[in-house]
Amino acid sequence: MFPCITLRESTEWLETVELKANTLVGTENDRIVREAKTLLGDRTLKKRLATVPNPYGDGRAADKICGTLKDMFYSGKIKIGYWKPGWKHSVRGTSRK
């Protein structure tokens, strides 16, 4: 994880602030420069951030979803309707081009 300085008074990314991987500094020039200097001068920051867990998962959500759907399909728990390559999907269902 990399350090982040957010130039706003608030953020939707509260998880990164709570993990101290993101600092809200607002828009005041003096504070922005002061916080940037603090982060750049912190020799332990890189090591500390290396141990911070990613609050948004491991980046493998799509693989996990596809694996689960594949398992469900092959076990018979879900069925997929007939579809032929080249057909397009319409609001009323599958139709030919």
CA radius of gyration: 24 Å
Q: Sketch the topology as an H/E string, one letter per element.
A: EHEHHHEE
- CATH architecture type: 3-Layer(aba) Sandwich
Number of helices: 4
Query: Could you say what the CATH topology is called?
Result: Rossmann fold
Summarize the biggest pleated sheet: 2 strands, parallel
How many domains in all?
A: 1
> What structural class should be given to the helix and strand makeup?
alpha+beta
Low-pLDDT runs: 91-97
What global shape is seen? elongated
Distance between the termini: 47 Å
**Average pLDDT over all residues:** 83
CATH class assignment: Alpha Beta
Number of strands: 4
What's the name of the CATH homologous superfamily?
Answer: Glycogen Phosphorylase B
Report strand order across the widest sheet.
Answer: 1-2
Describe it for me?
The structure is a single chain. This protein is an alpha+beta fold and 97 residues long. The chain has one domain (1-78): Rossmann fold. Helices cover 40% and strands 12% of the residues. The strands form two sheets. A two-stranded parallel ribbon has the order 1-2. The protein starts with a strand and ends with a strand.
Set out the fold topology.
Elements: E1 4-6, H1 14-18, E2 22-24, H2 29-41, H3 45-50, H4 61-75, E3 88-90, E4 93-95
Parallel strand pairs: 1-2
Antiparallel strand pairs: 3-4
What key attributes describe this structure?
single chain, 97 residues, alpha+beta, Rossmann fold, two-stranded parallel ribbon, two-stranded antiparallel ribbon, 4 helices, 4 strands, elongated, disordered C terminus
